[in-house]
Design a protein that fits this description.
Elements (H helix, E strand, L loop, with lengths): L5 E2 L7 H8 L15 H9 L7 H15 L2 H11 L5 E7 L9 H20 L3 E7 L6 H4 L1 E5 L4 E5 L17 H12 L6 H11 L6 H13 L5 E3 L4 H4 L3 H9 L1 H18 L11 E5 L3 E4 L1 E2 L4 E3 L2 E3 L1 H10 L4 E3 L3 H9 L2 E6 L1 H7 L3 H6 L7 E3 L3 E3 L2 H7 L13 H12 L4 H26 L4 H44 L12 H8 L3 H12 L6 E5 L1
Parallel strand pairs: 2-3, 2-13, 3-6, 13-14, 15-16
Antiparallel strand pairs: 1-16, 4-5, 7-8, 7-12, 9-10, 10-11
Helix pairs in contact: 3-4, 8-9, 11-13, 18-20, 19-20
């Protein structure tokens, strides 16, 4: 199997994403900058000296880090953010159990690599930032981890109860013990297991919030690479955003039109990733949790709570921490808070950013370059050995297992065993005719014995043919099992490995420093992370 890389067009990436990577000019109308053009990224940096709220953000982030329990490891990155002319490369993700899917790690690695690259190019401090999706309340979406277990791939669920709060506020319950046991049962014990479980148990323990656990883990993995952890679900940070929350309500029609104009346009050519709504805010109430705010004839409503518009605006001004941004408003407040050189996004995020160009203008901002994240499949030695024994390319394992098996069986049946043995018997009969005649001439009484001997040859061939058939069937079954094993490892749960497998699976086998080592290898090899899906290990 060619492990040099696989183009995105050969995998299940959208037409929009492939166009974004390979023919950006077709998308000029939806994005401000081509992220793969260094000159355009430099142009972005020229006009970016700071962010609207950076001066007040730094002490607020310091207090946030203290609450998360990661202040001591974050101080260096925080100080760098405060340097004159500092910029950031941001990425972010939901607060997945035990670090979520492995693409969370890849996004962070991409931000680190880009920050290092542009710090050299620009001669300015560039800080990689991981933005915690601490406003999100889709608990079901984060409450699992994916492990290649002892016999198969397993999605193991954490059965904690959701209270419709932002996930960051949800408390880790006693169910963490059952979840831990399920994961531990699937992972083989290795030389690295003890340290891995020490790290996981330090953060994921009853009584902590999910944001404390997740932030602590990401801090352990990436603080040494200079990653700054940030988020918005914190009172001191929310206080900086009330003007933008206020604007999203007071100018709701203009905000809606700004999103809808580009959403309709991109939908005509590609697809609309996220539906537009009459508000981009949620309300956080003790009784109902995080509830979408909707426009009504009366004014505005969230669950059972109603306001006239002036009442809602007054509450935003007085209690900004009661309000939470949606998927469209989150990038806006992120770029109000941070001097964003660029954002590292997955394919789905790139798609909804394409709906937002006019929204940035509505908030007196310019959309930053949206960098595509590094994507990869980690192929272990046990898999790479058996891959070489099969005729498929990496990309082909994206097919249904039934189609792969049928394709293999068709290829395996190119040798017609029946024809081989029929021809062999015919030649045997021809060769036997002359000796039979000679022996009969010498002693006719031996005719029966000669006939039995020749028939014995034929019977031996039949037995041999049976053994060949059984051998082919056995080899076929072995290969079909190999196909299934490869398919499970490369495309578990019906999709790319990075979308479902937990980083801890690989850390347990290869060490807690695997991501730092992979970062160093990518940097040393100078790999272009933007054009191919890479296959490593």
């Amino acid at each position: 199997m060619d492990i040099s890389g696989c183009s995105f067009t050969e995998l299940s990436y959208s037409n929009l994403f492939n166009t974004y990577i390979n023919n950006f000019k077709k998308l000029d109308n939806f994005y401000q900058y081509d992220p793969l053009d260094e000159h355009q990224v430099k142009d972005r940096a020229k006009g970016l000296r700071s962010s609207a709220y950076l001066k007040d953000l730094i002490p607020a982030l310091k207090a946030y880090h203290e609450e998360l329990g990661i202040l001591s490891d974050q101080s260096e990155a925080l100080n760098k953010l405060g340097e004159d002319g500092s910029l950031v490369v941001v990425t972010g993700q939901q607060l997945g159990m035990y670090g979520g899917p492995i693409y969370t790690v890849y996004k962070t690695m991409t931000a680190v690599l880009l920050a290092r690259k542009y710090e050299k190019i620009l001669g300015r401090p560039v800080v990689p930032v991981f933005w915690l999706a601490d406003e999100d309340h889709d608990f079901e979406e984060i409450a699992w981890t994916g492990i290649f277990g002892r016999n198969d791939f397993h999605k193991l669920r954490y059965e904690g109860e959701s209270h419709n709060l932002p996930v960051s506020q949800e408390i880790i319950s006693e169910y963490i013990s059952t979840f831990r046991s399920s994961v531990k049962e699937e992972l083989f014990d290795t030389d690295f297991s003890g340290k891995l479980w020490e790290q996981l148990d330090e953060h994921y323990q009853k009584g902590k919030t999910h944001v404390q656990a997740f932030a602590g883990l990401m801090n352990d993995w990436f603080a040494k690479e200079g990653v700054l952890i940030a988020g918005s679900n914190f009172p001191q940070i929310k206080a900086l955003l009330k003007t933008d929350f206020h604007h999203s309500i007071a100018e709701s029609k203009a905000v809606f039109d700004a999103i809808e104009s580009k959403s309709s346009e991109i939908e005509n050519v590609f697809h609309r990733q996220v539906m537009n709504g009459d508000s981009n805010l949620f309300y956080l109430s003790e009784e109902e949790g995080r509830t979408k705010i909707h426009k009504t004839e009366y004014g505005w409503k969230a669950g059972e709570t109603q306001w006239k518009e002036e009442e809602l605006l007054a509450e935003i001004n007085e209690y900004p921490s009661k309000f939470s941004p949606n998927v469209f408003l989150r990038p806006i407040i992120q770029d109000k808070l941070l001097p964003t050189l660029g954002y590292v996004a997955g394919p789905g995020e790139i798609a909804y950013y394409g709906q937002m160009k006019n929204l940035y203008s509505e908030f007196s901002l310019e959309m930053p370059p949206i960098f595509p994240r590094f994507t990869a499949t980690l192929v272990e030695s046990g898999i790479s050995r058996i891959v070489e024994k099969l005729p498929f390319k990496f990309c082909e394992y994206d097919k249904r297992i039934e189609d792969l098996e049928s394709q293999y069986v068709e290829q395996a049946e190119t040798i017609d065993i029946e024809a081989v043995f029929s021809e062999w018997k015919e030649k045997l009969d021809e060769v036997a005719q002359q000796p039979q005649q000679i022996i009969n001439d010498i002693d006719p009484t031996l005719e029966g014995t000669v006939g039995k001997t020749v028939a014995g040859f034929s019977n031996d061939l039949d037995r041999l043919k049976g053994k060949v058939y059984r051998s082919v069937k056995q080899q076929e079954e072995t290969q079909l099992k190999r196909i299934e094993k490869i398919k499970i490892n490369l495309f578990p749960d019906g999709g790319l490995q990075e979308r479902s497998v937990s980083p801890i699976y690989f850390m347990n086998k290869y060490g807690l420093d695997i991501w730092s080592n992979l970062l160093a290898e990518i940097q040393d090899k100078g790999l272009d992370l933007t054009r191919h899906h890479f296959i490593e290990l």
